[in-house]
Amino acid sequence: MKAAIPINNLYHMLCYAWDVLPQSNLVNVNLTGKEQPIELLAHIINTGTQHLLRRGIDKGYVNVEEVVTTLRGRVDFAYSGRRTLLHQGRALCSFDELTADILPNQILKATLFRLSRLRGLNKSLQKESGGLLKKFDEVTQIPLGSSLFKRVNFHSNNRFYRFIINVCELVYYESLLDERHGDFTFRDFYRDEGQMPKLYEKFIYHFYRKKQNEYRVSSERIRWDATSDDDPGLSFLPSMLTDITLRSKQRSLIIDAKYYRKTLSSFYGAKRIHSNNLYQINAYLQNVKRNGGNDSEATGMLLYPVVSEHVAKTYTISGKRIRIETVDLAEDWRIIEARLLLLLH
After folding, report:
1. Which residues of the chain have pLDDT under 70?
2. 66 found inside a domain
3. Same domain, residue pair 305 and 160
4. Contact at 8 Å (CB) between 301 and 342?
5. Are 27 and 78 members of one domain?
6. How far apart are CA 204 and CA 244, in angstroms?
7. 144/165 same-domain check
8. CA 93 vs CA 86, 89, 115, 200, 271: distances in Å
């Protein structure tokens, strides 16, 4: 990148990417602009946890199987008989119990523990995480794993949890356990070409959904304009899923949001657009034209973050107009917003 993304911009990008603008207002971030990315994430989690504790953390019903003296729920008579529990005035019962020991709270507790042991994190934030961790005594301490985040169910009453769990997931992927010392280290995720491309794409997608009403915004699967006697369902062809498709009554625009630390590739010292990006956007345009109407004249755009300089080029390839554009993520946020909206015209 031309420069590190300012922390205020990074916060806006994350809120758009996760589609949590209303929930983000509940966290008083108070950014100075000098924080490191991990300090931003730790502050969001700590402040968000305090908000949850003030309103009362979520509880849910968990199935419990326990030997009890008062019958509850479903009684396992076979087991209770074999163990002569009934003669002792007891029985094995299975019942639902309302508890705070549910997956979202377990993930939050595990993340607070990770932050409290995170090497290089601001000491006051580290201490704050450790203090909040003690308020989750009734919640089981679990090891974090990528599959856990996919298992969390969100609903209208726990939307704020979605915001916090998204941050927890990012901390999980970007923090590494040092088994020798038993603590964690964090890598700056805006340099991570695994995480940042996803966040950048989602940021652009949700930005256009929220900030303009001229276009209908979607991510859509484009069917190949092809036939085959050997494969009539075209199942062997790769799927084509657009990052962002914008349609209005007047025009159609397909955007591929591509995040690289180097916008242009280099071939014997000459700068070039990444060839696979160009082939991909051209394939979208050539196959979407079968829809007719505005889609037959659809324009394509490859949208990159600025690395060393702005790029603005337009090409007509096989009759289809393709634009190469950039947005400077180090600019003032209002300029970024204006730039993104200007690109639609």
Report:
1. 1-3, 22-35, 176-193, 262-270, 308
2. no
3. no
4. no
5. no
6. 8
7. yes
8. 12, 13, 39, 50, 70
